[in-house]
Specification:
By secondary structure, the chain is α/β, with parallel strands linked by helices. Helix content is 23%, strand content 26%. The protein is built from 11 helices and 17 strands. The strands form 4 sheets. Strands 3, 4, 5, 8, 9, 16 and 17 form a 7-stranded mixed β-sheet that branches. A 6-stranded parallel β-sheet has the order 12-11-10-13-14-15, with helices on one face. Helix 11 links the parallel strand 16 and strand 17. The longest helix is centred in the C-terminal third of the chain and has 13 residues. The radius of gyration is 20 Å and the shape is globular. It binds NADP nicotinamide-adenine-dinucleotide phosphate (NAP) and zinc ion. The site of NADP nicotinamide-adenine-dinucleotide phosphate has 32 residues, from helix 1, helix 4 and helix 5.
Amino acid sequence: MKIIKAYAAQSPTTPLLPTTVPGRATTENDVVIDILFCGVCHSDLHAARGEWPGIRYPIVPGHEIIGRVTAVGAAVTRHNPGDIVGVGCMVDSCQHCEACEEGLEQYCEGPHAWKQTYNGWLDGTGENTYGGYAANITVNEKFVLKITHDHSELAAVAPLLCAGVTTWSPLRHWQAGPGKKIGIVGIGGLGHMGIKLAHAMGATVVAFTTSASKIEEARRLGADDVVVSRNADEMATHQKSFDFILNTVAAPHDLDAFMTLLKRDGTMAMVGIPDSPHPSPSVGNLVFQRRQLAGSLIGGIAETQEMLDFCAQNGITSDIEMIKMEEIERAFSRMQKSDVKYRFVIDMATL
Ligand code: NAP
Ligand code: ZN
């Protein structure tokens, strides 16, 4: 059996520390990848600390992976040893349900649904999957993305694998583009990508933040206007004006303050998954303007590739702060305080 060097939490209350985990056997459809960089998503923190139900320990987080292919199975056709590739939140799915056939593997209806990169269920065995805070990973070739960005940018490309596609997918689904007024709530890892992508799609973009220190930077990222969401007067100037709002906040908060900013028939899509519920939104705000409150989960493999190619063509990467593997706990603490501009990325050479 392969033994993989990694960082894991052994329980919700213990820090991430160096360890080893078993690697799974390589099949003929698999690609083996040496991990170069791994982004730090707020989901890694929610999961490691057991803030979500169903977390199994040890947990090796990390689903914003950039690496180099070291070996491929005999049936692999899409990737070759030496290629620079990406892996996001999924490493497999049933590949034949309706969702998978539509290229929406994240909504897979097969047994155990989509196979999450970490805390997922390996086929048949019930064994845990281990993520990108590790030396290497073995992934079905269909879930391995091609990376065409310049090799000097790879660390800043890693966050596209989750933060990029999780904002890209709803922006595309709800048709962000010229003539549309789009709000992005919460300027963290996901939100800063939401601003860049909605701006690149040609929409008018308004950023909502609770951090006054992010006002100028949100403009630099591509926002046409920035609102401090705790300021009721500033919020009032945008009543009933948005076509679509993407809410990336990682904590429970008052959704009504944003619902009333939507036009008739406007939608707010939630991507943040806090550990406890939001206060219930008022049904009146939905009924009287036929507004919709929706949700969205990452994105399918085809749309992840589409987003990566779009970003490579348009010079888009993430704004990152590089850390060493041993700095992960400090990075988690800073992320909890919204103190990250805008994504920590681990240099896996430091593992
Ligand atoms: P992040 O980098 O920590 O950013 C979250 C931002 O939310 C913060 O920077 C802050 O922005 C704002 N915020 C935090 N606490 C707040 C509060 N109490 N009230 C109002 N605003 C607050 O997190 P992330 O990595 O972007 O992830 C965001 C959420 O999305 C997490 O819950 C994560 O698990 C989830 N997620 C979901 C999916 C999916 O598929 N649906 C995929 C990835 C992640 P400001 O400083 O600008 O206010
Ligand atoms: Zn993520």
